[in-house]
Amino acid sequence: MGYGTSSALMFLIDTLFALYIIVLLVRVLLQFTHANFRNPLSQFVYQVTNPPLRPLSAVIPRWRHLDIPAVLLALLLCFINIQIDGLFYPQLNTAPVLAVALSAIKLLVMLCDLYTFSIIIQAILSWVAPGAHSPATAVLWSINEPILRPVRERMPMIGGLDISPLVVIIGLQVVSRLMPLHPLLR
Length: 186
Hints:
The chain is mainly α. The protein has helices at 3-32, 40-59, 68-88, 96-128, 135-154, 164-178. It has one domain. Helix content is 75%, strand content 0%.
């Protein structure tokens, strides 16, 4: 297989893994933040993630408001993705113990990226259609408010502009960049 073909195949595989892992992370955040279960977007997330999680949930219980089976499945998918990446790029081929640690780091980086993206989308929606209510804005508010509220309470508005999303995004990006993760795994 040529470099271009293997690169395209790796991109496709990484994208599919990342999309499903992100949906699992959204599920974890929806449950952790007590988002509205009847929201159509929440329903979609649950329908897409229930089939593989149903057998895991029978064996592994949730802990308080944390969906442990979903977190473990996301970690497993990160691990499998890293192992597949090691087949394409030998420099990424790592021992299984190191791959488990890299999986946890990759999951944290993905969580930071998910929050960054969702805060940006929420900010754009608040500028384009302020006060509009939709299933997406309700889910975004449910997910983002727990990390925005503490910053918003401590930061004064500047000229009527809430800059707490900017502060949180900068913090998330700093945390993400502090994670020791190979650039090919990002």
